Amino acid sequence: MNKQRDSIYAAPLSQVSDFAFDAQVANVFPDMINRSVPGYGTIVDVIGRLADRFAQPNTRIYDLGCSLGAASLSIRQHCSVPGVQIVAVDNSPAMVERCESHISAYRGTIPVHVQCADILTYPLEKCSIIVLNFTLQFIAPEQRDALMQRFYDALLPNGLLILSEKVTHTDPLVESTLVDLHHEFKRSNGYSDLEISQKRAALENVMRLDSAERHIERFRAVGFSTIQEWYRCFNFTSWIAVKGAQDGE
Question: Is 133 flagged in the annotation as binding?
Answer without folding.
Answer: yes
